[in-house]
Amino acid sequence: MRNIFLALSFLIVISSCNKVKPAKQLAQTVNKADSITIKKIFNSALTNGKSYQWLDALSNDIGGRLSGSPEAQKAVEWGENLMTELNFNKVWLQPVMVPHWVRGEKEEAFFTSSNEKFNVPICALGGSVATQKDGVLGEVIEVQSLEEAEQLGEKLRGKIVFFNRPFDDALLLTFKAYGGCVDQRGGGAKVVGKFGALGAIVRSMTHSIDDFPHTGAMSYGDLEENQKIPTAAISTKAANLLSEKLKENPSLKFYFKQSCKTLPDAPSFNVIGEITGSEFPDKYITVGGHLDSWDLGDGAHDDGTGIVQSIEVLRLLKLNNIQPKHTIRVVLFMNEENGLRGGKKYAEEAKNNNENHIAALESDSGGFTPRGFSFDINSENYDLFMSWKPLLAPYGLHDFDKGHSGADIGPLKNETISLFGYRPDSQRYFDYHHASTDTFDKVNKRELELGAASMTSLVYLLDNYLN
Amino acid sequence: MRNIFLALSFLIVISSCNKVKPAKQLAQTVNKADSITIKKIFNSALTNGKSYQWLDALSNDIGGRLSGSPEAQKAVEWGENLMTELNFNKVWLQPVMVPHWVRGEKEEAFFTSSNEKFNVPICALGGSVATQKDGVLGEVIEVQSLEEAEQLGEKLRGKIVFFNRPFDDALLLTFKAYGGCVDQRGGGAKVVGKFGALGAIVRSMTHSIDDFPHTGAMSYGDLEENQKIPTAAISTKAANLLSEKLKENPSLKFYFKQSCKTLPDAPSFNVIGEITGSEFPDKYITVGGHLDSWDLGDGAHDDGTGIVQSIEVLRLLKLNNIQPKHTIRVVLFMNEENGLRGGKKYAEEAKNNNENHIAALESDSGGFTPRGFSFDINSENYDLFMSWKPLLAPYGLHDFDKGHSGADIGPLKNETISLFGYRPDSQRYFDYHHASTDTFDKVNKRELELGAASMTSLVYLLDNYLN
Questions:
Q1: Taking every annotated instance into account, which residue ranges of this chain make up the domain Peptidase M28 (chains A, B) (predicted)?
Q2: Which of A449, B14, B127, B221 has the fewest CB atoms found within 10 Å of its own CB?
Q3: Cα-flanking dihedrals φ and ψ of residue A458, to 5°?
């Protein structure tokens, strides 16, 4: 479209957004100074933002950074150097031992049906064991759920089990569709391993019908060593093809080969920086994301965007001469993807040091256009947070909902702390999540910057109104 | 992020969204049946949508479709055949003569500064004349506005004028930034041509700093033939480089060559289909987008998405057994980009036939995730439309604002008609707008489908509550 007059219509949007909010809410904490400060924060993020160039470095110069890898160590050094250059009051590394799983050689997979051979894209799931050196070959049993596999029990012995329950496209929020399927990835091998299956192949966790397998964490739980079977994700296109061919030929043979393994735990770090509070230096507001990523892409959306947005929160506060009353900490958590060791360690140390954490915010849902925040808080603060809606609605932040905040900050949970999750639009997230397609070019500069500004605005309000 | 519990948090979003709305609004037209119907519409769009595969055909099988081109004619036939297959009650072509501008050979441009040669990406603006056969070479004068050029007046004679005012990144809504710059593209050549400039080079209309020139319409207004000078868009990266080199060397020479020309007007068509109303067959609700596009990309976002969404509106009504009371028309408007002839013709014919158009909706802002609708209506319907917010907010539709609706439906404006524009998120739009990057792969299937469902829901409510 070309029409320049269209532009004028949008002038009205911001001014009219507040009309949406009940007047009684407006009464509470909203005031002109807050709305001016928040406008300044958004202006500076959009005109003088640094998050995009930082993400370029993290994604393109370092790339995928699986826990325990040399790239993860490079990311630790990158984060420490960046925060030092930014002159935060304190910058340090918090040691943490992390799981060290390696993928090994590129996986191979195919199936043969009526003398035709179909090569299919797969990738080992994080934590899986290798196949035997020359791979695994077997007949396939397709199932739609862990329950169905349990019921088949002994019938699974010697078979390759194919978990193929797809995302429910009807669900508006893609994380809900993910939550409805991911048990197959996390627990499939555990369920069928105990019945002597040869392997578990899991449909990739995405709405998109394409050729990219999506990896992710899995667990064998308490299985004995000899029950631990290799497990891999298969692309959705290949999953549909396999399912179709199985209907024609139930006895077709599937082959896959992977050489992944788990090495001894490796030393790593959470990277921490802070601006010391002017009034309550011993009360902490933490903002963060996770520094580790899967290895197939460069971890741009998961969770490079959360990392650079979290660092940008502190820079935008300084840039706008906002001296926080409380100590504002940014934490680049290590090992969210396959262990959560960084999040657990940070909470453990906070407890050991009797640190009073009053709030924490995590960004780990991608660097997409802002939609709102989820919060996990005690009821007494509910009205306070809801009273901020009129301040944030003009920036597209309408979803203020109770719910999960973030995996890394979850271990900080107690009776008093307020936990928040940044919630961007979710529609594109699972096109890229844990796949080779999660790359820097999928991130829009302005969407990333609007997210950083949204997070900074929430931290500003928390610092101003929370005690 | 991997955490499956996160998913659970989103369960709360939809149920809580309605809380946002003042109770007095809920009182009016909102009722359970509407909310059930709208849920059905969204479910069917997401689980059984056709818009994405239609867009694949329009974008990849036909491609860019400039008015008067063979591709535009193919698009007309494609639209007529598709609507015929969909068994709409009536499908027909409405003849309209359109401007026929052709780009000719690929443009060439470079500048030389201190014996260094810099090739730069440019593209002719729609409607521009060609350069002389061997191109144009001249010194450059950089300006930031039409006013600055006017003031320079005679100083522009024999020079190439470089309009380089960039988008204002601080503006939240990208259409507003576009509106603040596009006068340079539309009117630059007209202003400097009358002072004897050799050519006008205009900074591309985008936030993105990249190598892709963005074309678009321009006009010479009432200039005499000998005052009509060639004009082209230059990529933002090249514009920044040229500006930088001009500071070092104000007398550097810029060269460009283009062979575009305007042929005699060509015959073309608006493509129209309708579902006849059961109660008020002579009252019309029109939904549409524009079938023509620029030629550099495949016109996926501008406006292939609006085309397939508009057709999908009628299909989703039929699929959900919603028999409209009023006649619902879909119009694939021809020639929005460089003439608006289709929109004018449709309004003219509607008037000639004394058709009573009660409402019209246009989608021409890209196929991105839903944000809301703009409306251009008389005050008596304002409260009615605002009362629908609680029904649409659960689907991310929060922005209900007075303003411009759409270029193609604009000519239908009168005292009584209600005009609406579909408003998706605007952040990514100008990365692709009128450039070679406006291609099918930039469209997310679910975002496109959510837009079609949003439009269908509005049409359903208009049909139900408007008289």
A1: 270-449
A2: B221
A3: -65, -45
List the domains of chain B with CATH numbers: 40-101+264-465 (3.40.630.10), 104-259 (3.50.30.30)
Which chain A residues are within 8 Å of B50, Cβ to Cβ? none
Query: B10 is written with which tokens?
Result: 């989103």
Q: CB count, 10 Å around CB of B132?
A: 9
> Which strands, in side-by-side order, build the sheet including B116-119?
B116-119, B108-113, B253-257, B136-143, B160-163, B199-203, B231-234, B122-124
Q: Is the dihedral of CA B118, B119, B121, B125 positive or negative?
A: positive
Q: Which of B3, B428, B434 sits opposite A404 (nearest CB)?
A: B3
Residues 6+ apart with CB under 8 A from A211: A121, A235, A237, A238
Q: What is the Cα B467 distance to its own chain's centre?
A: 29
DSSP string, A266-294: EEEEEEEEEE--SSEEEEEEEEEEES---
Asked if B311 and B363 count as a contact pair (C-beta separation under 8 A), the reply is no
Q: Which phi and psi (to 5°) does residue B455 adopt? A: -65, -40
Query: Which among A7, A10, A369 is the nearest to B425, CB-wise?
Result: A369
Do the chains contact at A4 and B217, CB–CB below 8 Å? no
Q: How far is B256 from chain A (nearest CA, A)?
A: 25
Q: Are A254 and A238 within 8 A, CB to CB?
A: no
Nearest chain A CA: its distance from B345 CA (Å): 18
User: Does the bond joining A303 to the residue before it have cis omega, within 30 degrees of 0?
Assistant: yes
Please state, in angstroms and rounded to a whole number, the distance separating the CA atoms of residues A233 and A103. Answer: 13
For chain B, the maximum distance between any two Cα atoms, rounded to a whole number of angstroms, is: 75
Q: Which of A205, A208, A163, A199 is nearest to A184 (CA)?
A: A163
The interface predicted TM-score (ipTM) is: 0.93
Q: Looking at the DSSP assignment, which residues form a beta bridge with residue A261?
A: A102
Residues A372 and A385: beta-carbon distance below 8 Å: no
At residue B74, the 3 state secondary structure works out as helix
List the pLDDT tens digit at each of the 467 positions of chain A: 544 333 333 333 333 333 334 434 444 445 899 999 999 999 999 999 999 999 999 999 999 999 999 999 999 999 999 999 999 999 999 999 999 999 999 999 999 998 899 999 999 999 999 999 999 999 999 999 999 999 999 999 999 999 999 999 999 999 999 999 999 999 999 999 999 999 999 999 999 999 999 999 999 999 999 999 999 999 999 999 999 999 999 999 999 999 999 999 999 999 999 999 999 999 999 999 999 999 999 999 999 999 999 999 999 999 999 999 999 999 999 999 999 999 999 999 999 999 999 999 999 999 999 999 999 998 889 999 999 999 999 999 999 999 999 999 999 999 999 999 999 999 999 999 999 999 999 999 999 999 999 999 999 999 999 98
CB contact under 8 A, B446 and A179: no
Q: Do the Cβ atoms of A13 and B404 come within 8 Å?
A: no
Q: Give the separation between CA B39 and CA A223, rounded to whole angstroms.
A: 44
Identity of the amino acid at B334: M
Yes or no: say if B424 and B398 are a contact pair by the CB < 8 Å rule: no
- Cα angle A216-A219-A221, degrees, rounded to a multiple of 5: 170
